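[Q] Does anyone have a clean structure-token version of this?
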Amino acid sequence: MFLSVFDMFKVGIGPSSSHTMGPMVAAARFLDKMRASPFVFHGLRASLHGSLAFTGVGHATDRATILGLAGFVPDTYDADKADAALAQIKAEGVIHPEGLPELSFDPAQDLIFDFDTILSGHANGMMLMATDAQGDVTLRETYYSIGGGFVMTEAELAEGKDIEEGAPIPFPFKTAAQMLEMSEASGRTIAEMKRSNEAARGGVDNLRSGTKRLWQVMNDCINRGLSSEGELPGGLSVKRRAKGIHEKLLEERGMNLTAPHTINDWMSVYAMAVNEENAAGGQVVTAPTNGAAGVLPATLRYYLDHVPGASEAHIEDFLLTAAAIGGLVKYNASISGAEAGCQAEVGSAAAMAAAGLCAVLGGTPQQVENAAEIALEHHLGMTCDPVKGLVQVPCIERNGLGAIKAVSAASLALRGDGTHLVPLDACIETMRQTGVDMSEKYKETSLGGLAVNVPNC
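[A] Here you go.
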């Protein structure tokens, strides 16, 4: 099994990888389909289903869909250009995608939130349609945003399209058990095996430059969050807190009266900074999703800024190890909150971050696997219940606590020899089963939990 580090970590925009980035990617794919079609098109329509409908406004799904149809993509997203394009589309009722004729599209009429029709493939479903001069649909495609910015058509999902298509890789592990067996047989660390797999597909130079950019975007996101203040959009009147907390931590640094547990506040503030940026629609890196984007960068920043002997030379190993664990979770369970609750998002992120930290602190492959298992195990059953459909409450603080759990899990694993009772594979399967059993109202629909019990929302 191969899932690239650049699949697990994708540069994109907030507030959601599945509800914002995914629909934008789907729209871009539909434009390509239109360009390859012999038909002459005059208009566009879109319908959002399942979780994309229930929390679409709070997750900016409508905005992302419109901008995607206008030709915007997450990796090169320009906020100012997007705002101008959106205003023009709403005013004129037409879209001008590159390589296609002017297309009629009135967001108020042609973008439908369908709360009644549930598409069978996944909780995050959407249909995109192109019409002729008479308004009849001449091209249609159903897309599913399956988490982490990954998008599949209805046919791809039904066929079980393999995410590992491409050149053979030297270490094709599909389970944690296989990963450890290959590591022992080859004498290589998890990061070294992952690096060999990446090199077989994209080359070492691409890996180095790509991982360097990923950390740069992650770290820039932390720094923006630590220096920004004000109120987050969406109507909940949630104020940014990372800047104020960070300033107080800087004031207290070196004071003899500072309690040891204050280090938890440093981990939390790094994560909160990222997720405040995400909530504001800023540039983030899926890790493995936007809703969980703060856990891993916070853990890595904690390592670099607070652990004696830490080195930036280890960043690539951290990301490779984390991506290996994330790939196992995605392949064998889910990283989608709409599919399995927040255990699949923050739980997966904590497992990835714990594994990465354990690796760069000198942990053996067995200890790394143990660290990931500890972190994931103690997120099992966590629901996804965003208040008002916004990726703010409880998401921002939850990332901070996820980072704390990741560091604790890595530390506990390093205190042992790697042997433990519950294998990571069993924990991942438990998470999958729990997601299947979980009520839909706790899976990113904002129909249960905090979303219905917080007053004035």
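[Q] Thanks! Anything notable?
[A] The radius of gyration is 22 Å.
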